[in-house]
Structure formats: C-alpha cells, structure tokens
Predict the structure.
Amino acid sequence: MAEVSVAVKPRRAVPGRPVRGGPRATRRSRREARAAYLFLAPWFAGLLVITIGPIVASLYLSFTDYSLLEEARWVGFDNYVRMFTEDSRFLSSLKVTTVYVVVSVPLQLAFALALALVLDRGLRGLSIYRSIFYLPSLLGGSVAIAILWRKVFGADGLVNAVLSVFGIQGPGWVGDPDTALGTLILLHVWTFGAPMIIFLAGLRQIPASYYEAAAVDGAGPLRQFRSITVPLLTPIIFFNLVLELIKSFQSFTQAFIVSGGKGGPADSTLFYTLYLYLQGFKNYDMGYAAAMAWVLLLIIAGLTGVNFLASKYWVFYGDTK
Amino acid sequence: MATRSRPIPALFRPLRGGRVVRHVLLIGFGLVMLYPLLWMISSSLKPEELIFRQPGLWPGEVTLENYTEGWYALKHPFGYYLWNSAVVTGLSVVANLVACSLAAYAFARLDFPLKRLWFAIMLGTIMLPHHVTIVPQYIMFSELDLINTIWPLVMPKVLATDAFFVFLMVQFIRTLPRELDEAAEIDGAGYWRIFVRVVMPLCLPALATTAIFTFIWTWNDFLSQLLYLNNPDNFTVTVALRTFLDASSDSSWGPMFAMSIVALGPIFGFFLAGQKYLIRGVATTGLK
Amino acid sequence: MSSGKKTWSATLLATTVLVVTAACGGAGGGEGADGTVKLRFAYWGSDARQKMTEEAIKKFEAKNPGVDVEGEFSDWASYYETLSTKVAGSDAPDVISLEIRGLREYADRGTLADLAGKVDTADLDAKVLATGAIDGKQFAVPTGVNAFSLLVNPALVERSKAELPDDTQWTWDDYVELAARITSGSGGEVTGTQLSWNPAYLQIYATQKGEPFYEGNRLGLSPETVKEWWAIMQNLIRTKGAPDAAKSSEIGATSIDQSLLGTNSGAMGMWWSNQLGAAAKASGGQLDLLRMPKLSGAASGGMFLQPAMFYSASSTTGHAAEAAAFIDFMINDPEAGQIILSDRGLPASSKVLAAVRDKLPEADKKTLAFLDETKGELTDPPAAPPKGASAMEDILTRYSEEVMFGRMTPDDAAQKFITEANASIAG
C-alpha cells in the first residue's frame, strides 16, 4: 500500500563516497539498516508490547460472540454476515459518516490552510489571532461543547436570533434530523486549529532562501506562491488530508456529547464509531463491535492506500529530486 | 515579525493597503468563533441558578462564587487535579518528543529492509477505532498490575505508539533538503549526530507542533484517564470536571464552567509558549 | 558513530529498565501489607454524591477497622463502559452499584453474587426487594425508591390563566387540553409541557390499557397501544401544548436542569420523583408532583415504585463477607442514612427512612408525602427488565422521533419498534 509513502533514498554520487554497488556500499547499507532499527527500537518495543496484542485480540473477538461479561464464543463470520444482511442501522451509520467525512474534511482543510496563509506573517498581533483561532480546538471534547452548541444552533440559539432580525423563523437546527448532521459538520470545521497549526509549521519550514532566489530570478508573488509555497507544502497538505480522513471516519466524541450518546434525532447523527460503541458497551455485543471496527479499518486502509498512490502525482518531497 | 524579508503571497496582497480592513475582518471572525467560549466565561460568572434561566451573554449579576465553590467542591482542592494532569501530560510530552522523532528519522531518512511494510503497519495502528482495543489493553495492564498508576498512560508515549506524531515528523523531515544531511556526512558525522545536530534543529516547528498537540490531547483525554486512574486521589482534571455533572439529578453547572475555564489556562498557556517555536528553522535560512 | 553507539545502548537499556520496572511496579490489590482488606466500591454520580459517599465510607471504616473501602467513581455516561471493561479484565469491583435496566445484563451473565441471608433486608418492603431477585437469588439490594410521575410548576399554570387539575381523575385528553391552554394563556411565553420518551411513561400507559410492558423475554405491548400513546404526543405538538418535534428532540437530549420546567419556560414534565429536587433547584420555584393522567375507565393508574439504584456484590470477589457487610451498612445503618439521605432514592429501609425523615430536604419531603398519599393506588413494582433492555429507551426514542418528524407512519413505526425491541431482549 505504501508505494511512495517512504523516502526512497536518492542514490546520487556524493564526492568521496562510491556509488551503490561496490563492497563498501553493502557495508554502508548494513550499517544504515542497523542504525535504522536502533532508531526504531522504542517504536518496535511499543508495537510488540502495547499495540499488536490488542489489535490481534480485537480481530479474534470479531469472530466471536462476546458480551464482555462472559467468555467469548467462536461464531465464525456471523458478525460480518449480520452486518451486511440484517442490520439497516449499520448501513445508515456508514452513510451518515461518509457524508460527514466528504463534506467536513475538505471544508476544514481549506479553512485551515487559508487562515494559516493569512496568519503566517505580515500583520501586527498575529500570534494573538493565531491563539484566538486555536481556542475552539482547545475545548475539543469538553462536555461543555454540547451546551455551547445548543446555544448557537438550538431552537432559541444565536443563529436563530440573528435570523429573526431578518424576519426569518429558523428551525431547531440541532434537533431536526435534516440539519443535525450539518451542525456537527460545522462543529468539526470550527475546530480547525490542529490542521491550521500544522500548516503554519509547514510554512515555517520552507527555506526563505527559496523565495529570495525566486525573487532574484524575477518571479512575482503569485508565481512564488504557486511554484514554491504550494509544492513545498504538499507533504504537509498530504499529511493533513490522510490524518483528517482517518480521524473523521473515527469521529465519536462530538456526536456522542451533542446527541447525549444516542446519535439522534432519529439516527441522523449516528456516526459509525458511535454505533460501534453502542453495540459494544450498551448492547454488550463487543464481538459485533470488533467486526465493525475491522470493516472500518479496511475502508480507511483502502482510502489511505488510494491516497498514497495518488500522492505520487502531486506531493513533492525535499529529499527526492 | 514585521522585519521578515519574505514577501506576502499574492493572494493577500491586494489587502495590504487595507490593514485596518484585515484586522476588522479577523476580529469579527474571531468573535464569531469565540461566541461559545464567551458564553461559557459569562456563565461561569453568573450565580449558578441563573445560568439556564437567563441564558444571555451578559451576566446580569457577576459573582466569583462558582470559582471558589468549584475549587473546593471535590475531595481535594482543584489545584490537586491540575497537578495530577500536569504530571501525566508533562511526561507524555517529553516521551513523545523523543520517541516519535527517533522513529520518524529512521522512516524519513534511513534505508532498511521491510521499511515499507513497517511504515504501513505503523499507519495501520491508528486506523482501528480505539473502543475495541480498550478492553484488551485494559486486560493487559490489569494483568501487569498497573491500574491506578500512571504507566498505562505514559508507557505508550515512551514507546512511540502515537503513530500520528511519527507520521507528522516523517512528513516534516521529508520537506527538508537532503543536501544538509549529506554535507554533514561529508564532514564525518554519523547518523546520530546528523539526527541531533542537523535534522532536529531544523524540525523545531514540527517538534513544537508535536509538543503542543501532545500536551492538549493528553490534557483533554478522558476515557483512559478515567479507566486507569479511577481512585479519587488519582483523578485528573478531565475526570474531576465530569464529577460536576450528573445526568439524572442536579449538576453543578456553574462550578463546572468555572473549573473548565481554569483548566483551559494551562493548555492555553502551553499553546502560547509553544507557538513561539513555530518559527523558521535557523539553518534553513542560511542555505543557498 | 561510536558516541552514537553508546547513546543508543543507553537508550535501549533505559527502555528495558522502564518496561521491567513498569511490569513490577504498581500497587498490589486485595490485601494490604498490614493485613487490611481492600474493598473496591464502584458508583456513579456527581460531586455531591461523591462527597457523601466518601463520608459514609469513612464511617464504615471507623466501625470496621481492617477494611479499607476504596470508592471507584465514574460519571454516569461512562459508568457501564468502565464497569464492563473492568469485569472483562477479571478486575471487577467488589461492590457494584447498578440501576434496574442494567441489573439483568450483569446478573444473567454470572457477574453478581447471591446476597440472600448475607445482608439484612428485614426492614425493606418485600415487593421492592423482590425487584432485585432473579430466579430466587437476591443479586441486588435496592437503595431507595422512586415513582415516575408528573412534575408541575403551579405558579406558571396560574400565571397562564389555567387551572391545576384534580389529578385523581384527570384523563389524557385533559392533560393535552391543559398543556395547550397554558401555552395559549401565557401568550406562548410558557409552554405547557415537554415530551418524554421514557419507557416508564409508556409502561404506565400500557398498564392502564391492561397490557404489561414485558412478558418474559418479549414485549407485552400491542402496536395499537404504542400508536395511541404516540397520538397523545402528536396532539400535544399540534395544539402547541409542547414544542415542535425539532425543539422537543433538542430538549430531550439535555438534563433536567435545562428542561423547560427547569428553566421556567414550561409548566409540566414527566420525570422520576426523586428528580423533583433537581428540577426545583434549577427553576427556583415551587414544584409539585401530580399523578399521571389516566385513560377514562382504566382499572389502574399504572404508576409504580421502582428502586432508584441497587447495591450488588461481584461473584468473583475475594471478600464476600466484607462486601456484604458494607452493603448492609449502606442500606440499614441509620448513621449511613443520615449522611446519604435521599441521594440514592428515598431510603428503602423503613427504619432508616424513619430516622432521617425530618432531615430530608424540602423537595424530598414532598416526594415522600406524595408517595405515601398514592401508596394504595400503585401497582406492584415490576420485575427487572430482561437482558437487552438497557437499549429500550434508545429504541423507543428513535422510533418516536421518526413518528414525530413524520418520517414514518405510526403503523410502520409501531411494528418496527416492537420487532426491534423484541430482538434486543430475546436473549
């Protein structure tokens, strides 16, 4: 899957060092591999001790009937079959989540990038603005969000108060199944702070010398933006895209808090992981929840794979030429 | 900041003359963004019983009662829980900075067998919703007799299990021109020295990002802290905050809002401190 | 590289040491070094409950030297998640708080110990006590009781130029009419009532129709009953006695302090009787309890007592005797009662209730008087619902909302509700 995911070390002749192929190169690459595994030692230990066990266990559990309170009982593919043949809520949760991801991820990233560009430099007091725009993201999964969001989008909330100035009687956005998901999408966009910061950090990492050189060559600002900022930022854009996709497919907390843990009204905000959670911990069907988790893993892995394949055509790394 | 030599991207150039316009737009936008937060601050200053009865933004009556009451409402003064959170969070930040940058350097700059497979596995580890790994993980830590210690919270960070940050740093390191490493290599530097002396200083923005996010996310994390630190003496801020709420009976909304604001202080402070390091890496500017 | 190598060996060593110390560290559970027994007690609730509980625990420890009770607290939203995770990890708390919907989830799966004969239950009402027994085994002891009833703000009713009903004989039609009159009489400033999708409400209505809610592992309800019940709510929305569907579902997802009644923007609402205090505190006004309306000609009003909470002991506890002693203390000891008062429902033990009667907060005195007054009319406390019933409120809410929003016909929704509910509790 990770065809282009990892830096392929360019093999260019460096003065004083033979090109790959000679006996010294083999020794060198062995040395390099050894160093790499040492650098990765903590990560390998973590994989072995902390990560792999629970992941494999959840795969096993997905083939069982497991209530958490009793021993797991092997049932083969039952959970998977049930998911796709009998469970209409499963499909509707998948639909809700897909809409959420498709709308909110591009929106949030565009927002984050635009503000990162505005806030990169050129204005007095930028760090204050940055902090202000980041504040909503600090609230994140706070339980207060549920109340705050109703203050804005509730039947008697801020939005309707503004609308009523224009003589429009707005609906209860949070409580209406047609608009509830929309308010959650806005909630997601509202917390654009994390990708914004990552974009900012990315902008800061672009060597200023590139701009100076381009300016010397007579490139105008638009040209500089197009041929320096955007290409050099692509690894970061790519990172944000991959991670936001993964994260929003797993969105849970905000829907859980805003809907009081139910995914209502009428299942309109029943996110995939929220449904998974309800199955596992409320219906005591952890086997089914584990199966759902693995289906989601396949979906996300597929999407990420496509993402990586496509990245070949638009992501530029500073380390490959 | 005004002395930066880099030109403004053309996109925003037309606005250059209208600085005031830009400030006005940003401030207006900021206020809209902050409305919910302002409401929370105002609510924390209202007498508790009026929070939902008088839901407007301006408190008719201002009191600090919620703050004094909230601070002492639980078994320990609230500062106790702030300290608990600070310990868990501080250790996590340090651990993540070290462990994730080590792994990221290997993935970004070094060549080794099975690299792509390991990378794919690393990414794969964040694709499974955590709800299904919570139980096996709890069983594991419980077998190790580590419940009500900070190890279940800190050990994963020490061992770089947060693939998000590994991937983040990989991407950042890969934006750096490789000529820098090569120049250092010619000077006789080994991988460790290149990592410490060349790559890390250039990654300051990435390190700052990692530190900021680790701090915020660990500080705000709720479920694992509730699960692994469930003795009232070990509560962290997020767990303590939830104790103000009771779905079936009366919740202490006023103290909850007040202490939520108090709990925002450290993360906001850390953010302010951290964002200063979102500056251009020193060495990149010198590269021609 | 040589310096690098050294650094690396050091890092590796440090990692190893860390893992090893981590593996060996940690507090051992069970018995302390000095031979004291450590007893873990899981409960949910607010800061106030936490304080009371800690105080009661201290009392217990003073009376039982050698036992160290450690409260394991969680907020309600995460309670069952953390509890089931602990049980799955063979790490179940010794004493577990449960409410009636969760009781059989745990009891039927062998998680709980039989407390019969270990906890003194002589002062508990036999019928209330029986709700904690399954197949003759006393898996749980009720802490206190509750009745699902109608809460009303008389001042708001009056201000809206309406009159309080005679609740001994009012009908559902009267209820809808009153709600509509309050809304119109107040010029829309006060809404009559707010909708409730609590299964207890449907249960009361079904009892009035002579149908049980549960019949073994099936629903005893007919689709007609569910449809008629929904019709009450549709009428409320139509006559503006309750907010429209969207606002109703918005309010429905909030707690009682943000309800219409709690914010003085509504005059009525249905809750458990022990929530009167919370609602009164939120609204700042005088609230009263009323009997639920009746179907004209119904033999029974259908209201019932239900335990607010249970204490139970883990079947795997190594300290069964201490666990039973702690539960006994919390249920029967007037000293514990003096501390806990009505926090876990009006005390189930008549002896404790008599001892704390005068110390109860105003709202709870009112509740007590209401329960005394209606005692003769109440039906027997229903047995704990079958395994799978913890999802019942969610299922009912979902189909009710589909109907209120007009996205499903009542016929269709009633059928689907019964099918899905039956599947959930089938076993």
